[in-house]
Structure formats: structure tokens, C-alpha cells
Amino acid sequence: MTEGCRLYLITPPRLDPAAFRETLAAALDAGDVACLQLRLKDAAQDDVKRAVEALMPVCHARDVAFILNDDAILAHRLGCDGAHLGQSDGDHAGARMLLDGKILGITCHASRHLAMTAGEQGADYVAFGAFFPTDTKETAHSAGTDLLEWWSEMMEIPCVAIGGITAANCAPLVRAGADFLAVVGAVWNHPDGAAAGVRAMNAAIAAA
Ligand SMILES: Cc1ncc(COP(=O)(O)OP(=O)(O)O)c(N)n1
Ligand SMILES: Cc1ncsc1CCOP(=O)(O)O
Ligand SMILES: [Mg+2]
């Protein structure tokens, strides 16, 4: 059993905020979730704002951090707990200054160099992936457990593993030192519903 790994939930790429509130509440009530990342690819800023206003209170009522994908300025403006930025999502150093005291996560693909740079720039976590094939996003990078082992032995900054992670395949990532497992499909596409997905992920993490 490996201590300390937690579930990092990412929203489906498209959602209706009013309807999704209930689904989200049921998922968060099903077990431990460290944070929710709102990831609405290609949504207009007004739609993202409406989704933040609908969903952030659901998270905060349950002590779950609310992180916005892609846009540090909007995350700051809307009072989110932080932002997740990829390598093409703007100026990481500027985001670090803007999000003073908030969470900044940075995608580092499968690169030690990107991860060390992100750490130097003050990232609160680095994200590695993709670990497995995924239908959620087209991925150009493939990460392995050796990267998680190296990072967690060398660095204090937490690391997130992402990409095709399920209850059935996550154990090696937990054992390799991932601090968080970020998932979309394993929860929202679970055949028995999102609450069952959260329960299955937490059971698999605990058993790893
Ligand atoms: C926790 C986490 N890790 C990686 C990503 C991917 O970010 P990015 O490379 O910017 O790709 P998009 O998510 O923007 O398509 C993430 N969102 N969250
Ligand atoms: C956003 C993202 N970045 C790399 S893989 C991925 C998608 C993760 O979704 P899933 O857990 O469904 O594979
Ligand atoms: Mg991005």
C-alpha cells in the first residue's frame, strides 16, 4: 500500500453547468477527491465563467480545490483556487506572479527538463503523461513509470500522472510515486456512473 496518492478529477470537455452540478456533487460525495479541474476545450469565455459560477461552489462546499484549465488570467479574475497551464498556455512565470498564493500546475509531458523548469518557475505540481492510450485527447507524448520514480525520489514538488488512467491500470503509477492521478473517462464514463468511478479509483489507489 502506497500512502498519499489522491484523485485529481478533470471535467468532461463539454458540459451543461446546471445539469452537471448534480452529477458533480454525487461524484464528490462518493469519496476522496483532491481537486476538480474545469477543462472546457474551445468554450467561449462567458460559458467558462458560467460553468465556474455553477460548479466552484459545489467543490468548495466539499473542501475540493477548483482549478481552471488553460487560462491563468481568467482563473485569477474568477477567484479560482488555481490554474493548470500547458506548454502553449501562455507565460508560466507571469502566471506564477498573478496566482500568488494559489495553485499553479504545469504540463510537462514526458520531459525531465520541462519539469525542472516548471519547478524553478514555482509550479505547485508538475503533470506527466500520457501514461496510457486515451480517447479524451490526442496525445503526442508517452510517459513511463521511470519518470515518476525519478521525479518523486529527486524532488519535493508533487507530480500528477495523466492519460488513460483507470482503476484497472493505475497501481504501477501509485507505486512509482505519483502524488495525484488525473482522470476524465475513468470517472465520467464509468458504466455505473461517476460516483462508482470515484469509488473504484479510490479503492484501486488504496490497494496499490
Ligand atoms: C493535470 C493535467 N495534466 C495535463 C493536462 C494537459 O494540459 P495541456 O497540455 O495544456 O492540454 P489541454 O488539457 O489544455 O488540452 C491537464 N489539462 N491537466
Ligand atoms: C487532458 C489530457 N492530457 C493528457 S491526456 C489527457 C486526457 C485525460 O483523460 P482520460 O483520463 O480520459 O484519459
Ligand atoms: Mg492547456
UniProtKB/TrEMBL annotation:
<feature type="binding site">
    <location>
        <begin position="134"/>
        <end position="136"/>
    </location>
    <ligand>
        <name>2-[(2R,5Z)-2-carboxy-4-methylthiazol-5(2H)-ylidene]ethyl phosphate</name>
    </ligand>
</feature>
<protein>
    <recommendedName>
        <fullName>Thiamine-phosphate synthase</fullName>
        <ecNumber>2.5.1.3</ecNumber>
    </recommendedName>
</protein>
<dbReference type="Pfam" id="PF02581">
    <property type="entry name" value="TMP-TENI"/>
</dbReference>
<feature type="binding site">
    <location>
        <position position="69"/>
    </location>
    <ligand>
        <name>4-amino-2-methyl-5-(diphosphooxymethyl)pyrimidine</name>
    </ligand>
</feature>
<feature type="binding site">
    <location>
        <position position="137"/>
    </location>
    <ligand>
        <name>4-amino-2-methyl-5-(diphosphooxymethyl)pyrimidine</name>
    </ligand>
</feature>
<dbReference type="InterPro" id="IPR013785">
    <property type="entry name" value="Aldolase_TIM"/>
</dbReference>
<comment type="pathway">
    <text>Cofactor biosynthesis; thiamine diphosphate biosynthesis; thiamine phosphate from 4-amino-2-methyl-5-diphosphomethylpyrimidine and 4-methyl-5-(2-phosphoethyl)-thiazole: step 1/1.</text>
</comment>
<feature type="binding site">
    <location>
        <begin position="37"/>
        <end position="41"/>
    </location>
    <ligand>
        <name>4-amino-2-methyl-5-(diphosphooxymethyl)pyrimidine</name>
    </ligand>
</feature>
<dbReference type="InterPro" id="IPR022998">
    <property type="entry name" value="ThiamineP_synth_TenI"/>
</dbReference>
<keyword id="KW-0479">Metal-binding</keyword>
<comment type="function">
    <text>Condenses 4-methyl-5-(beta-hydroxyethyl)thiazole monophosphate (THZ-P) and 2-methyl-4-amino-5-hydroxymethyl pyrimidine pyrophosphate (HMP-PP) to form thiamine monophosphate (TMP).</text>
</comment>
<keyword id="KW-0808">Transferase</keyword>
<feature type="binding site">
    <location>
        <position position="164"/>
    </location>
    <ligand>
        <name>2-[(2R,5Z)-2-carboxy-4-methylthiazol-5(2H)-ylidene]ethyl phosphate</name>
    </ligand>
</feature>
<dbReference type="InterPro" id="IPR036206">
    <property type="entry name" value="ThiamineP_synth_sf"/>
</dbReference>
<comment type="similarity">
    <text>Belongs to the thiamine-phosphate synthase family.</text>
</comment>
<feature type="binding site">
    <location>
        <position position="70"/>
    </location>
    <ligand>
        <name>Mg(2+)</name>
    </ligand>
</feature>
<feature type="binding site">
    <location>
        <position position="107"/>
    </location>
    <ligand>
        <name>4-amino-2-methyl-5-(diphosphooxymethyl)pyrimidine</name>
    </ligand>
</feature>
<dbReference type="InterPro" id="IPR034291">
    <property type="entry name" value="TMP_synthase"/>
</dbReference>
<keyword id="KW-0460">Magnesium</keyword>
<feature type="binding site">
    <location>
        <position position="89"/>
    </location>
    <ligand>
        <name>Mg(2+)</name>
    </ligand>
</feature>
<keyword id="KW-0784">Thiamine biosynthesis</keyword>
<feature type="domain" description="Thiamine phosphate synthase/TenI">
    <location>
        <begin position="7"/>
        <end position="187"/>
    </location>
</feature>
<dbReference type="GO" id="GO:0004789">
    <property type="term" value="F:thiamine-phosphate diphosphorylase activity"/>
</dbReference>
